[in-house]
Amino acid sequence: MAGSLSIVGIGLIGGSFALASREAGLFERIVALEPNPRHAEKALERGLVDEIVEQIPQDSDAVLLACPSDKTASWLRRLRDHRGIVFDVASVKGALMTAVRAAIGSLPVNYVPCHPIAGMEKSGPEAADGRLFAEKLVIITPTAEIDAERRQIVENYWRAIGARIEEMEPIEHDRVYALTSHLPHLLAFAYLQGVAPEHLEHTGGGFRDFSRIGASDPDMWAAIFELNKQALLPHIKQFQENLDGLCQAIESGNVAASRSLIESARTHRTKPKQ
Amino acid sequence: MAGSLSIVGIGLIGGSFALASREAGLFERIVALEPNPRHAEKALERGLVDEIVEQIPQDSDAVLLACPSDKTASWLRRLRDHRGIVFDVASVKGALMTAVRAAIGSLPVNYVPCHPIAGMEKSGPEAADGRLFAEKLVIITPTAEIDAERRQIVENYWRAIGARIEEMEPIEHDRVYALTSHLPHLLAFAYLQGVAPEHLEHTGGGFRDFSRIGASDPDMWAAIFELNKQALLPHIKQFQENLDGLCQAIESGNVAASRSLIESARTHRTKPKQ
């Protein structure tokens, strides 16, 4: 047990971290700051936290920022002189750091940037799951300002709840996750706009899998798209070109061309041999 | 037991029907015509069929066309005088019927048009699964020419292997499945063209679910897109407009507009109360 944890935002991610770290015995006390009264109540009811607080206690040993990504930068600024280790879960990293540096000149030395590759279409503390991070990847995007000892402690938190750690350069992180996570969500949202209730009687497993992420939290995703738009927009353009190419092959009845585009797409999903 | 079944194409769907109908004791004898020698061998090895044949036997009581959709029309023409009941699994119906009518003036009276809403990203007889159709929907698209008795028999086949039957008008069928099945496949194919091996180390459950259908059989899907392009192309245009709208909201930094588009998409995935 290593003292106390404060969590900013006790939704799916914050709540799952709370549950997992309780099971791993990481902290003696866990409190959360949560503006949504329904979420706050649910978090207490499920025993995710010991108390809902109005302010981050001065003596917290660690502060987890599990708020929507667009709130992370202002929390980093606000907590820059806090004695505890501050770590986050925002799925945008380079753009976030640029915003913080623009505001206060450098990143706070108490900050360890993290992005757990775990989530689901459900949200809120009612969906919190102590196994959410088990065998999942957590990306650490180290910075010039990062403190080695604090980084080690945060990595140990994640490992204690079953996650693996990998390091990535922040801008590269944003570019890669714009393609592998943010773009699929965007496409699922755009696709579902064309679906009406009468269609839902006529769907199979393909539809369900493809559109599952389309049920994800709108606030969270609008914030991610805004924060990471510099990396995301070029991927959207590239997708539109690929779609146009396939569309033209179909429109012109060039079945061999469609087939070859589909075949090439399929091979891209195959994981390279390790 | 009701005599003998011939299957044209012993891949995932033909093989699964063979397995399921064996378990249900529907036929005394099952043979298949299969141009791919590896598939033919695998089907024999797994005991899906009693024999691989070069021609459909004259005395077959039923013939299942489980070939790629672009071959179905020519098989319907070729078998129009066959004594057995001919039924298929093509995921395009109205366009297929139009093609057959254009070629021979009317639909063969031995034909019962079927579309089982079951499939997966795996293909070939090695993926055949006797439970594939259990609790799945099979769409029957009746025509002016359809024979009531034959239709009843085919519906009983599907019910015997656990499927539910629903009737749809053929053109409406093509329009609806273009949106709920063909378009998601097309989008997954276009998306995967932009994904490179180095990205695959950085994917979560969202990517896996979203792109699963992108691993589907290229021959089968190129044929479906060609056959159903009249219904599919307007859905592609509509999708492109929805994507443009979301893209413009992101590009202009209008987070409220993005949020509202995402929110509306999300509600479209909710099944109406029955």
User: For the record, what CATH class of the largest domain in chain A applies?
Assistant: Alpha Beta
The total tally of domains of chain A equals 2
- Extract low-pLDDT stretches of chain A: none
CATH topology of the largest domain in chain A: Rossmann fold
Q: Label the overall shape of chain A.
A: globular
The helical percent of chain A reads: 40-55%
- The helix/strand class of chain A is alpha/beta
The main β sheet of chain A shows up as: 6 strands, parallel
As an assembly, this protein is homodimer
From the 3D coordinates, which CATH architecture of the largest domain in chain A would you assign? 3-Layer(aba) Sandwich
Percent strand of chain A = 5-15%
Instruction: Output mean pLDDT of chain A.
Output: 93
Largest interface (CB within 8 Å) is between: A-B, 84 and 83 residues
Major beta sheet, strand line-up of chain A: 3-2-1-4-5-6
Treating each run of at least 4 consecutive H or I residues as one helix, how many helices of chain A?
Answer: 10
